[in-house]
Amino acid sequence: MMRKSEYALWALLVLAVLAAGTTMVSLARSQSASAANSEIYKQLDLFGEVLERVRADYVEQPEDSELIESAINGMLTALDPHSAYLTPKHFRDMQVQTRGEFGGLGIEVTMENGVVKVVSPIEDTPASRAGLMSGDLITHLDKEQILGLTLQEAVEKMRGPINSPISLTVVRKGVEDPFEVKVVRDMIHINPVKYNAEGDDVGYVRLTTFNEQTTENMQKAIEDLKKQLGPNLKGYIIDLRNNPGGLLDQAISVSDAFLDQGAIVLTRGRNLEETQRSNARTGDITDGKKIVVLINGGSASASEIVAGALQDHHRATIIGTRSFGKGSVQTIIPLGSNGALRLTTARYYTPSGRSIQAKGIAPEVVVEEELPEELKKKVEIQGTRGEANLRGHLKGEYEAQEGEEVEEESGSSSYVPQDKEKDTQLNYALDLLRGIKSVDTETKKKAEAN
């Protein structure tokens, strides 16, 4: 059994709790730390004592790795809701999401009655080439039943190295018996951009996330819409509703695509010298066409950077409801073979210096979607979810008038109707671009006042 002093040293190594300017090379050097740091080592002694007691006296034998991981997570979640420890597996999953590509089958799936249901095969992927269809039920993977697995566990089994085979047992409506489908995994690209022409005069572009593919695919979408609509093109709708964010550099490059000059976003860390400013370069891929940006309570982080930049430069009209209000920047710090640390390192501000943290982006035209009855009841009980509602959230920085108290307010409904005919926000944007409606001046003033 380790002595308490050894536990303190182990805890110091695992938690990496070091004061600025202090490098731990050996125990002797740590013992000669300045008086200003002595309190840290006292607390680590306490941690070591508690850990020793838990390992020795807890009713069941605990796993040391789980204890340490829980301690690390407890330290980070006490900072804010977005700082966290990523295990090696979670770190790999995050890298897959940000790259937007992985070895897999190419199907969108959900879980139904304990088996995997194919929502849709992605075009030109192993799944579509193998003949999988929407509505197919996958009951076994390599002859092992799915029943009892979570959706995430089943998805992980379907992913794997490129060129590796997998056998799916499929139940299809209209086919009497289950049948086997052999699929060879290939590189799957997650396209975060969906687009189409609305009528013969408006280009609609939806960004679902900000991964490494977002800017490039958005530019391709804009170019394709230009060709489709030609001289009839009145403008573009950029739909950021329920886009949870992603990579900061992609938010900057997406904003840059619509701006000719000026700041895009400011990021400020703990120290003033850490302030960074990202500026737009010359060139607007829309050739100055009108832009409407749609946001709602599910628009967060990178989405808010884009909406805030285009709003401050009067480059777009923002329509919808108040965004989530996540105005902080997380840095991913790899920890070798031990995963990674996701740490909040800065706040970000719009070009005019507005902090979005726990405040969000207020649209110039507030348009609410009509909620179904079951959702109305849920909202009445639970309310809307935004950054300001998260326990332990980072406080925003706002310029208040003398004697004024600035109330935190972020989030709104994230409901978007599947039927475009019932999509009030989308239809308002279409009417605005077509000149059927105009931005109400008083509405705009009220939104800016909030």
TrEMBL record:
Residues 399-410 have a biased composition (Acidic residues). Residues 388-421 are annotated as: Disordered. One of its GO terms (biological process) is signal transduction. One of its GO terms (cellular component) is outer membrane-bounded periplasmic space. Keywords: Hydrolase, Protease, Serine protease. GO terms for molecular function: endopeptidase activity; serine-type peptidase activity. The keyword Transcription does not apply. Residues 91-159 form the PDZ domain. Residues 388-398 have a biased composition (Basic and acidic residues). Belongs to the peptidase S41A family. This is Peptidase S41. It comes from Methyloceanibacter superfactus.
